[in-house]
Design goal:
Keywords: Chloroplast, Plastid. The chain has one domain (3-100). Helices cover 48% and strands 20% of the residues. It is built from five helices and four strands, in the order E-H-E-E-H-E-H-H-H. It has helices spanning 13-16, 44-54, 73-83, 85-96, 102-123, and strands at 3-7, 24-31, 36-43, 65-68. The protein has a four-stranded mixed sheet. Helix 3 crosses helix 4. The N and C termini lie far apart (45 Å).
């Protein structure tokens, strides 16, 4: 899907970042259909910094990050455009990830289990 606009909480935010290799920020992405998605873009180094701060050996569960090497306008645009491909599947996934009811996953699991049973029956017939 075509990206119409990429924006930040403040227009000058990118210039204010103290370390473009260790930071994360909310990014607003407006697509051609007029809907604006919000995603968090973080650097790999920032993920490690967050684990150090939280004293964990893994990234805590929560809303997912789009991970980049550096927070520059060009890299953010490149990442956002990639996530907007295929009808914005991954952009939508990252935007709505924290809002999906687990019943959706349970239904998908039940459907997949049924599919596997059917395959097993075909193999054994």
């Amino acid at each position: 899907m075509l990206v119409k606009k990429i924006s930040f909480v403040r227009p000058t935010l990118l210039e204010e970042i103290p370390d473009i290799e260790d930071y994360n920020l909310d990014v607003f992405v407006e697509l051609e259909d007029g809907y604006t998605y919000t995603v968090v873009i973080a650097t790999a180094k920032n993920i490690v910094s967050l684990m150090d701060k939280e004293k964990t050996n893994f990234s805590e569960p929560g809303n997912p990050f789009i991970i980049v090497r550096k927070l520059t306008k060009e890299i953010i645009e490149e990442a956002v455009k990639a996530y907007a491909e295929n009808d914005a599947y991954w952009l939508k996934f990252y935007h709505f990830a924290g809002e999906v009811d687990t019943a959706v996953f349970n239904r998908l699991q039940a459907e997949h289990t049924e599919y596997l049973k059917e395959l097993d029956e075909l193999d054994n017939s």
